[in-house]
Amino acid sequence: ITVSVTTRDGRTKDLTAIAGRSLMENLRSGGIEEILALCGGCCSCATCHVYVDDQWLTAMPPMSEDEDDLLDTSGAREANSRLSCQIPVTPELHGLAVTVAPED
Ligand code: FES
After folding, report:
1. Which atom of ligand 1 is nearest to the CA of 35?
2. CATH 3.10.20.30: does it fit domain 2-100?
3. Which pTM was predicted?
4. Which residues are in the 2Fe-2S ferredoxin-type domain (predicted)?
5. Distance from the CA of 71 to the center of ligand 1, in angstroms?
6. Which ipTM score applies to this complex?
7. Residue 57 in 3-state DSSP?
8. Which among 14, 44, 48, 87 is placed 20 to 30 Å from 96, CA to CA?
9. What is the mean pLDDT of residues 68-89?
């Protein structure tokens, strides 16, 4: 499963992601250290914030109220914002493209 990630320096990197793990875990294990994921994936830190490419928005799982509330605390929230720890990687997401959100 290939995921394309654009980091804060504007570079784009393709990662091989493993299904059954969250997008956050896959980004971290793929060396994207800008994704701090301070809370370890329990939806309480918002340091795993990414922007999902518009064409992939419909493929995303629905957003929980917790995720929505946490994103609201971010000054960098956009319409395509998601917390990557809340997105399980599935084979259907092959080709997914995301951008790391700016530091808040
Ligand atoms: Fe903390 Fe996603 S890792 S909210």
Report:
1. 3
2. yes
3. 0.96
4. 1-104
5. 10
6. 0.99
7. helix
8. 44
9. 98
Helical ranges in the chain per DSSP H: 23-29, 65-72
Instruction: Return the amino acid letter for 69.
Output: D
Can you list the alpha helix ranges (DSSP code H) found in 17-100? Answer: 23-29, 65-72
Residues 25-47 have pLDDT tens digits of 999 999 999 999 999 999 999 99
Report CA(86)–ligand 1 centroid distance (Å).
Answer: 8
The residue-averaged pLDDT of 3-7 equals 98
Structure tokens at 10: 């504007």
pLDDT of 104 strictly over 90: no
User: What is the distance in A from the centroid of ligand 1 to the CA of 34?
Assistant: 13
CA–CA dist 28, 73 (Å, integer): 23
